[in-house]
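Subject: sequence -> structure tokens, single chain

Hey, anyone have a minute? Need the predicted structure for the following. Not urgent.
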Amino acid sequence: METYLSNQAALSFLPSRLRRQSGDGGGGGGGGGFSLPSTRKVQYRSMVVVATAGQSRCEPGSSLNAPLELRSAQGRFLRSVLLNKRQLFHYAAADELKQLADEREAALARMALSSGSDEASLHRRIAHLKERYCKTAVQDIMYMLIFYKYSEIRVPLAPKLSRCIYNGRLEIWPTKDWELESIHSCDALELIKEHVSAVIGLRVNACVTDNWATTQIQKLHLRKVYADSILYGYFLKSASLRHQLECSLSDLHGSGYLKGPVFGSSFTTGTAQISTKEQLRHYITGFDPETLERCARPRTEEARNLIEKQSFALFGAEESDETIVTSYSSLKRLVLEAVAFGTFLWDTELYVDGTYKLKENGNAEEQENRSI
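Reply:
Had a minute. Here:
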């Protein structure tokens, strides 16, 4: 099962899995004050961070105008690579992940070797600081990998909403509905459209006039809707892959019924009478509460933190009861963006975890292993 899911998640990030060509022993320069160690084999020369002043209107523009500020040298370096050497982005990301994993492992090894010595407390402190440093860096790398996925479908992330609100009215342009919907399967898209309709109160097949009609919503509530929609996208990605895997295993066994040795549950795959778009819906409705929670809950702390950071960066951290006026079109744009964020987060989390072991979110991963 792990091999199948790993292959599914690796497809989107295949270039970084390729064997890199050997280069010189010397390190190239990096933007944002970050230098590559001489031990790395891939060189990135002439990396210049393009610093541009923020636009006065709520338009993403051509720069990397993400709401979340990158805090690590690794994140800023990948930002410069994406701006100036896009074709090397995956190689650079894979290289940064490997370097972080090696540095963390080395710090833990020194701590273990110093156990019982006079330097034990020092190395414990160093390992603790290194863990915090790596955690910040790997979250920035994950964020840039997600950002790259948006750039592949030519969808810029919405900037900080404080830049998009004028006289209490919020508008985000362009909408990019088609692009944001294109990443999902047909059966998942039907569920997503229903989710959008439920959270913003717009009919699934609303006309253009209805889309541009205005409504009022509390900013704090909109932030919660955005975070919940990220989790919904994460859940659908997880459930969709589980569905595909169990159906594939059922086909291999040549049977319409599969007892759950893989996921600890049973379900009927003989659904010829059910239309294609209803198959995923039918599968999800058969989840027991434990399976439902396992699919909807981020597996790692890093993924959970990114959801919180993105939401706070976009809407602000203040607990305000401010009411804003906006169009249903702008609300739909935000919800679709959030669902896509959750989808990309699931892929990114699994990809990164293959090189740099992420920290499990509570006992979610332990429960998953027990069911397997």
